[in-house]
Specification:
Length: 178
C-alpha cells in the first residue's frame, strides 16, 4: 500500500506544481507571451473542452494528434483513479499525459541539465466541480528561457515547434477532433 500512496502523492504534487502559477485561460499566444515576459518564465495555458466532447474523446483526440505530429506519448497518469483506489471514494477525472520529442529533449539536456525539469511535456486533463473538462499545461516563455540558458537559435526553433505541437494537441482534444 505504501508504494501506491507514494505514487499518488507524487502525482498530486505534479498537479499542484502545474496549477501553481496564475492562470490565463485561452489568452491569445501573443498577449500571453507579452504578459509572461513581464511576470515570470512560466505560466499556465488552459483550454476548456467543448461541451458535447467527452473526456474520453478529448483524450483519444490528443493521442491521435500527438502521433500525427511525431510527439510520443511516453506516459499517461490516471491520477484520479489512483486517488480513488487509495481513498475508496469516487473522484473527478484528473489524467496527466506526458508527451516527448526525444531528440529535442536530449539536445536540450546536453545544452543544460536544468531543462530536465520541463520534460516530458505535460498536459493535464481535469474535470472541474461542475463536470466541465479542461486541458492545462505549463506555458513556458521560450524566448526568455532560451536567452537565459544561451540556447542556439536552431534548438530554440525546435523547442518552439514542440510547444506549437502541444498547443495543437490541446486544441484537437478540446474540440474532439479525431
Amino acid at each position: 500500500m505504501r508504494p501506491a500512496f507514494l505514487a499518488v502523492l507524487g502525482a498530486v504534487l505534479s498537479v499542484l506544481l502545474l496549477a501553481a502559477p496564475a492562470s490565463r485561460a485561452a489568452t491569445p499566444p501573443a498577449e500571453r507571451t507579452a504578459q509572461t515576459a513581464q511576470t515570470a518564465q512560466a505560466d499556465v495555458y488552459k483550454v476548456a473542452i467543448e461541451r458535447g466532447v467527452s473526456l474520453t474523446d478529448a483524450a483519444d483526440s490528443m493521442r491521435l494528434r500527438a502521433n500525427a505530429l511525431n510527439l510520443q506519448l511516453v506516459a499517461e497518469l490516471p491520477l484520479s483513479k489512483q486517488v480513488e483506489a487509495v481513498t475508496g471514494q469516487p473522484q473527478r477525472t484528473i489524467t496527466i499525459f506526458q508527451f516527448c520529442d526525444a531528440v529535442t529533449a536530449k539536445a536540450l539536456i546536453d545544452q543544460n541539465l536544468d531543462f530536465a525539469v520541463y520534460m516530458p511535456c505535460r498536459i493535464a486533463m481535469i474535470e472541474d466541480a461542475e463536470g466541465r473538462g479542461w486541458l492545462v499545461m505549463m506555458d513556458v516563455n521560450v524566448d526568455m528561457l532560451a536567452q537565459e540558458k544561451r540556447v542556439p537559435q536552431a534548438l530554440k526553433d525546435r523547442i518552439n515547434a514542440v510547444r506549437q505541437g502541444l498547443l495543437e494537441i490541446m486544441q484537437a482534444g478540446a474540440k474532439g477532433e479525431l
